[in-house]
Amino acid sequence: MDATELREKLTRDAEAAGYHLNPDEKFTSELVEGLLANTERYGYPLCPCRLTGGNKEADLDIICPCDYRDQDVVEYDTCY
Fold it and tell me: pLDDT tier at 77 (50, 70, 90 boundaries)?
């Protein structure tokens, strides 16, 4: 999957869950690139704003969309 395909998928998934991607194109593009890099590196879409030990079981809470998304949206009006 390339950046365009992932962005389209993220847009569909976000909209289906009642969310919207950040309208800042540069910010969102960097996030998409980070997800792609982490998927290539670890084999799963690890949220680029979180640290990992590289163990999928230990990282389940930080796989995008991470468990901290809703809390971040409430506190910062955005995740990440």
Answer: confident
Render pLDDT for 21-53 as a digit per residue (tens, 0 to 9). 989 999 999 999 999 999 999 999 999 988 888
- Residue 54 tokens read as 């590289």
User: Which residue type sits at 16?
Assistant: A
Q: 4-36 b/e with 16+ CB inside 10 Å = b? A: eebbeebeeebeeeebebeeeeeebeebbebbb
Q: How far apart are CA 49 and CA 31, in angstroms?
A: 9
Q: What is the CATH number of the domain that holds 34?
A: 3.90.460.10
Residue-wise pLDDT for 54-68, tens only, equals 899 999 999 999 999
Domain count, the chain: 1
Domain region containing 30: 3-76
